[in-house]
Amino acid sequence: REHSTHSLTALTYCLIHSYSQSCPSPYPNLPAESVPDFVSGLAGGSVGLLIGQPFDVVRIRMMTSAAPAGAATATPVYRNTLDCIRTIWRSEGPGTFFRGLVPPMMGVGALNAVLFGSFGHARRLVQDDPSVPLTLPQVSFCGSVAGVFSCFVNTPAELVKVREQVFLKATEVQAGGTRTLHVVKAILKTNGPLGLFKGFGLTVLRDAPSFGVYFAVYEGCCRTLMHGEMGKREMGLFEFCVLNLSGGLAGVVAWTCIFPIDVVKTHYQTQPLDRPLYTSAWQCARSLYRSHGARVFMRGWVATVARAFPLNAVTFSAYEMCMHFFGKYSGGAQAEK
To answer: Residue 93's pLDDT is what?
Structure first.
């Protein structure tokens, strides 16, 4: 939930699923974390981040547009999603829609490695026979395990990203610096290194169930539409459409299930560093409810869903096309031998 973290999860899951179906590796001297898989994951994750970043900025702004508890007015800054887009465009310029892109882009490789390793280890623990596909509950369990371990990378990346998207303007950046570096320095100066992990518990509470739901929905869609042939690495028109549809639906369902938790996490991570408004996540949730009602926990959902479907669809497509290219190349090399 990059994070665009669902897009990166999609890439990792495709890789693991293929190997769990006993697909022969074109690089027998390398482990499952082979060069083609890693490069394809980076390509797909990068494309997904670029596509989804403008939606992510709007999502974060909509979440945090509600006035903090105790403020003089509880009137939101933006009336709706379209009003948010227009206001940002007119007052801050189009470049604002790509603010906060650096932290998740830098973490693509690290997050993929963590997700792959944790999911792969969990899969080996629960899968007695590699030739037998995992059941959907097993897939969900492994996804939740991967989600927990990904939080060690995802928490600081998202903390810097949301603070950059909400607070930092171009005039606040010192000469010779960058917005991302400015945010990191402010966090370290005020709260020390551990300050980069503010909201870690909420991130675990969000990502563990969301990754479980995401993996299960994606695998269920693929098995239903492709009759269990997901591990063949085919890239025909039908398979291409199934990948897009399955990835998009999985992203929408997973985000919807945990969206209230993400709202609380975003408010908790974007409170002032030197004068925090909330001492705990529970206090943050109660304060939001008392000031704005239950509707505040779904504020920004439209922008999130609008981002989730194309982001995950594009990510799967980019990943599979890269893997298809590597498969053709390695196949030709083996034929020459």
So the answer is: 81
Q: Which long-range contacts (CB under 8 A, 24 or more apart) does 34-40 make?
A: 36/322, 36/323, 36/326, 36/327, 36/330, 37/323, 38/109, 38/112, 39/322, 39/326, 40/11, 40/15, 40/318, 40/319, 40/322, 40/323, 40/326
CB 183 within 8 A of CB 79: no
Instruction: Mention every residue, 6+ apart, whose C-beta is less than 8 A from residue 39.
Output: 322, 326
pLDDT of residue 23: 41
* pLDDT score at 287: 92
Distance CA 81, CA 306 (A): 11
Report, as ranges of residue numbers, the positions in the chain whose pLDDT lies below 70.
1-49, 65-76, 100-110, 112-113, 116, 167-178, 227-234, 316, 319-320, 323-324, 326-337
> pTM surpassing 0.70?
yes
Encode burial over 242-268: b for 16+ CB neighbours within 10 A, e otherwise.
bbbbbbbbbbbbbbbbbbbbbbbbbbb
Q: pLDDT digit string (tens) for 239-262? A: 888 888 988 999 999 999 999 999
Q: What is the pLDDT of residue 16?
A: 46
